[in-house]
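Hi C.,

You asked whether I'd gotten around to modeling the 124-residue construct. I have! Everything is below, sequence then structure, no commentary in between.
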Amino acid sequence: MTAEKTRQFRLKQSEEKIDIAKRLLSKGDYGNALAQAYLSIFYSVRVLLLEKGADSDDFEKIVSLSEEYFQPIGWLSRDISQLLEKGRTLHEQIERNNKNEVSIAEALSFIENAEKIRKAVEKA
């Protein structure tokens, strides 16, 4: 797959995860809504890393690379690596416990961040 096709594929994945997150949120499934928003952020960051020639599917490497490339310049004034870390932790807790212990505010925050990050990545 060419770099442009990979970019478009990941942007589409990111957008689909946001759509799923919104549907889950409307059904009161805040934990899974947050998990889907987290995945959207993950795919968006991978698009940025692809453009830097530093793509990876290893979570730790993605967090490290996002800190290296995007935190020093204050990209979007959001701590992308922190969002990834928190999202991953909550996602794993939800899968392990199969409980919905996420508040609507947390889920909404992740969805809003995912949308802003995806839109900015798409314009980049």
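If it helps when you're writing up: The chain has a mean pLDDT of 80.

Thanks,
B.
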